[in-house]
Amino acid sequence: MGGSSLPLPPAELAARVGTVEGADPLEFYLAEGARLRRVIESLLPEDWDWENKQVLDFGCGSARVLRHFEPEARGGRFWGCDIDEPSIRWAESKLSPPFRFFGNGLVPPLQLPVRTLDLIWAMSVFTHITDQWSAWLLEMHRVLAPGGILIASFLGEGMWAPLVGEPYVEDEVGMTVLHHWEGPDAWVFHSEWWLREHWGRAYEVLTVQDPPRGPDGTPEITHSYVALRRRELKVTPAQLERVDPIPGELAALQTSLRLSRREMGDLHQQLAPAAGAGFLRRRLERLSGSTKASPR
To answer: Which CATH architecture has domain 11-247?
Structure first.
């Protein structure tokens, strides 16, 4: 397996794609990249082979995962793309060839022609895509060849309790977004039924991989993964986003509303003391249409 002999990125770029407290960022970068290669391989169909494959690492960062496919890249065409320009510049200068890189925006399209890729993986990407999720799923659909595979990580049961602070209830999660105001750093959670219901309108769901469980049944604190095959049909963003009147959808919307209210309350508690009573009073006056000066 390749990866360890290639140039390493600066520690800052290595940490940008994720690390854990107390870990050496470069050691974690290498170990996590190798682990994710194993995850990807475990989710591929049994008859998969790497010969002459065209592959995209969507959200590659500084090539944490891609670098571990060096032998395969020399016999195929392996792309990496990301919104982070410093990471792409570094990867392009140090790892091309055998890999190829390009930057992408927060919204589609990608700089790739239609129906050319055999495989796309997206590690820690759809975990942060909020309003544009359907557009990006259809962009993956556009560039995948017939029968092409998409593998994505998602925040499921393993990450819910540590990040949200309450028990995970599969039927009540759906797609839940927290920290929406942080843009690309928002947290996006999914439950399996929701992925099958919505992503399954454009893709055949092949496998869903949940986190390993400890002796007490508690899930490991890690991502979940889904492997999908491109369906041969035309789908629109509106069709992917359509909410059908089924119990899970209503429960998921209620969860999103409840947690949004909680976040708003937390933000108010943080901002109100810093803003001061004068600011809040003036804000209320503007909202009420008052133009009179208030006594201090």
So the answer is: 3-Layer(aba) Sandwich (3.40)
* DSSP, residue by residue, the chain: --STTSPPPPHHHHHHT---TTS-HHHHHHHHHHHHHHHHHHHS-TT---TT-EEEEET-TTTTTGGGGHHHHTTSEEEEEES-HHHHHHHHHHSTTT-EEEE--SSS--SS-TT-EEEEEETTSTTT--TTHHHHHHHHHHHEEEEEEEEEEEB-HHHHHHHHSS---GGGTSEEEESGGGGGG-EEEE-HHHHHHHGGGTEEEEEEEPPPB-TTSPBPSS-EEEEEEE-SS---HHHHH---S-HHHHHHHHHHHHHHHHHHHHHHHHHHHHHHHHHHHHHHHHHHT--SPPP-
Distance, in Å, from the CA atom of 126 to the CA atom of 267, rounded to the nearest integer, reads 25
Output the pTM of the full model.
0.90
Torsion sign, CA atoms 141, 145, 146, 150: negative
Contact between 206 and 228 under an 8 Å Cβ cutoff? The reply is: yes
Cα gap 94→79, rounded to integer Å: 14
| Tens place of pLDDT per residue across the chain (296 aa) | 556 689 999 999 999 988 778 889 999 999 999 999 999 999 999 999 999 999 999 999 999 999 999 999 999 999 999 999 999 999 999 999 999 999 999 999 999 999 999 999 999 999 999 999 999 999 999 999 999 999 999 999 999 999 999 999 999 999 999 999 999 999 999 999 999 999 999 999 999 999 999 999 999 999 999 999 999 999 999 999 999 999 899 999 999 999 999 999 998 888 877 655 555 556 556 655 544 443 44
What six digits make up the tokens of 171? 């039927």
